[in-house]
Amino acid sequence: MSGDRTPRARALERALYDSGLPTCWAGSYAALRDSRALERAVRHTAASLALMPAAYRWGTVTALRLFPVAFRAVTRTSPHSASPERLRHGLGQLRARPGYADVLRATTALALYGALDGTAPRPAHPPLGAVR
Amino acid sequence: MRHAAYDIDCDALVIGSGAGGSVAALELARAGRQVTVLEEGPRVTTAELAAASPAESMRRLYRGGGAIAVLGTPTIAYGEARVVGGTTVVNGGLLWEPSAMVLDRWAAWSGYGGYRFPVVGARFADVQQRLGMIVQEHGEGNEDSRLLARAAESLGWRWQHPQRVVRGCEHRNQCATGCPSGAKQSMAVSYLPQAEALGARIHDGVRARRLVHGRGVVTGVEATDAAGRPVRYLPRTVFAAAGPIGTPVLLRRSSVHRHTAGRRLALHLNLRTVARFSRVVDAVRGTMFTAQVQEHSGLGILVMPSNLTPGGLGAALAGRDPRQVDALLDVRAHLGMFTTQVRMQGPASITACVGGAPLLRHGMTQADHHTLRLAFRRTARLLFAAGAVELLPPTSTAGPLRDLADVDAYCAQVRPRDWELVSVHGMASCPMARPERGGVCDETGRPHGFRNLHVCDASVLPGAPGISPQGTIMSYAHEIVGRHLESV
User: Fold this and answer.
1) How far is CA A70 from CA A3, A17, A75, A87, B323, in A?
2) Which superkingdom, per the lineage (chain A) (predicted)?
3) Beta-carbon separation of B59 and A130 below 8 A
């Protein structure tokens, strides 16, 4: 539904995983530690980015491609192999950098939204006894 | 493979199916016109909304997946829908009447006096009656609204239950991702089915790309259909209602007032404040909100609870330290999220189109920054009176605020670039005003110099009304279509 599995969304999923950002999320946020939650997060982030206007998408993809380099510059380790403490430190450093602050906030917002609000909907009818 | 365009003859063509386009579709159909409605987004049923997760609906119903940025200092997140029924599918179903003071101010600025309160108010009364507007009292849950209302009373501040167009609201708290019970009277379940019953046809998944015109008459509309094929509509009359971004982009792409359309876009800004209470609030229970504090509406400031969901809360906290996010999500039953709506004075604009998509910029002014600080101060005072023990201001780098002294210190330090702002109300991008005052449309909603083209959505409003604009948009649209029907 809604472009989730389009070629563009799949390419963005790969770009996200390659960037190491999902590893940072899983190491930093309890809500994204569970593998199914992380999968929902990545899928929603990639599918949302795939729907963004081209100019914004290109900017975000460029920032994602540069993320491993930027992360290494502030932590001297790769986001794929850093310890949880390093992951948090690296994210914290990059959140304070102009440019990356907006990109990280936007992508992390999509990830948290996808993980926490991406599950099956609530029942169609309120539970018995509920006041309507 | 390139396909040759195929032609479709039609009488009245409505581009867009939101609050403005739906009015045009229904009123023209009622007058016996053969109506075709083009909608870029999909048609989504109530059953589909009920079966989808909020994240799926966000991607399916919102333009750009809900992630459009208005560039500037700071970047503002902008949201609007792209679905049959337009933004009425994902809004709160609020219906407020524009005030006589706002309409008088618009009349003075625009040079057109025909849209003052007696005219617009009568149209509003008709809309209110047709959609079955109610005063939404507290339902099961809505503890955040109850706290806000009691706090307002303790301060002697004015508050009100919202006016909403719902029939049997089940308080499912999913207004922003489409009502799963069909209670909200969006255009998709009200005006549009009525128009279809009168013969109107809705073509979903069709994107209008360009108006073909000469000597002030639109002779064709070039579009792309749901299968990606080019199609050319040949209408007698066109009503453009593609929204505050879509309509000016269409006009500019068609060389219709390309130097003025979209050069000025009015926004309402939303500040989001997360408040922690010592008691359980369980703000996910209940309808969107059932109390709005209007004490400072004269300053363009309104305060109300937000449509809280776990994901929405996580997204609002995303700029903060992960440990803080974890800690807050752990105590989310004690949290409420509150929206402070502010009318922005500095205009935004559509600066360019890149890859077919508009690039938006804003020019927030020092006066806006001052108003945001004032609005946050008033919100904080209200929330502490409501029993909040800690506030997280809309700046990720700022720590929790525990009293009014903290709030003062925050307001003294916050810089324009620090605000984290959201807007879901864009307006006035093709305003109805005399050309020498920057207007794009005349008093009948026609772009100056055009005879069979009308604009009847949020873009035609002369400014930002300072309230949820659906009622104002629909009232204007009824008047514009009414004048057209009287003239033919």
Assistant:
1) 30, 16, 9, 12, 22
2) Bacteria
3) no
CB atoms within 10 A of CB B12: 25
Which pair of structure tokens corresponds to residue A99? 């440019």
CA–CA distance from B161 to each of A35, B44, B100, B106, B437 (Å)?
42, 29, 21, 27, 37
pTM, 2 dp: 0.95
Q: Do B52 and A110 touch (CB under 8 A)?
A: no
User: Phi/psi of residue A116, each to 5°?
Assistant: -90, -30
> Measured at the alpha carbon of residue A54, what is the angle toward residues A52 and A55, in degrees to the nearest 5?
105
pLDDT of residue B120: 98
B181 CB-near residues (< 8 Å, 6+ apart): B46, B50, B168, B169, B170, B172
What letter does residue B161 receive in the DSSP assignment? Answer: P
Least Cα separation, residue A114 to chain B (angstroms): 6
Q: Do B354 and A53 touch (CB under 8 A)?
A: yes
* Chain B touched by A115 (CB under 8 Å): yes
Task: Provide the sign of the torsion angle of the four alpha carbons B446, B447, B451, B453, taken in this order.
Answer: negative
CA distance B41 to chain A (A): 11
Token look-up 């007032």 returns: B257
Residue B278, token pair as written in the block? 């010592």
Which residues of B are tagged catalytic? Answer: 425
Among candidates A101, A108, A116 on the partner chain, residue whose Cβ is nearest the Cβ of B310: A116
Of B56, B323, B329, Cβ closest to residue A1: B56
CA distances from B314 to A110, B76, B166, B255, B296 (A): 9, 18, 28, 43, 29
Q: What is the full DSSP assignment across B218-272?
A: EEEEEEE-TTS-EEEEE-SEEEE-SHHHHHHHHHHHTTSSTTTTTS-BEEEEEEE
The DSSP line for B346-400 is: SPEEEEEEETTEEEEEE---HHHHHHHHHHHHHHHHHHHHTTEEEEE-S-TTS--
Residues of A numbered 2-41 whose beta carbons fall under 8 angstroms of chain B's beta carbons: which are they?
2-4, 28-31, 40
Ramachandran angles phi, psi of B230, nearest 5°: -70, 140
What's the confidence (pLDDT) of residue A131?
Answer: 34
Give the contacts of B417 (CB within 8 A, at least 6 positions apart). Answer: B73, B74
Count contacts between A and B (CB, < 8 Å).
147
**Tokens at residue B467, please?**
């309230």
Contact between chains at A55 and B396 (C-beta distance less than 8 A): no
Domain boundaries, chain A: 7-116
Find the CB nearest B357 among A28, A55, A119. Answer: A55
**Per the CB < 8 Å rule, is A55 touching B359?**
yes
Cα–Cα distance list, B341 to A47, B239, B344, B412 (Å): 29, 30, 9, 21
Nearest C-alpha neighbor of B456 from the set B422, B424, B485: B485
B273, B286 Cβ separation under 8 angstroms: no
pLDDT, tens digit, for every residue of B248-298?
999 999 999 999 999 999 999 999 999 999 999 999 998 889 999 999 999
Residues of B whose CB is below 8 A from A88: 321-323
- Each residue of B437-458: pLDDT tens digit? 999 999 999 999 999 999 999 9
Q: Which residues on neighbouring strands pair with residue B6, listed in sequence order? A: B231
A71 touches chain B (CB under 8 A): no
Q: How many CB atoms lie within 10 A of CB B278?
A: 10
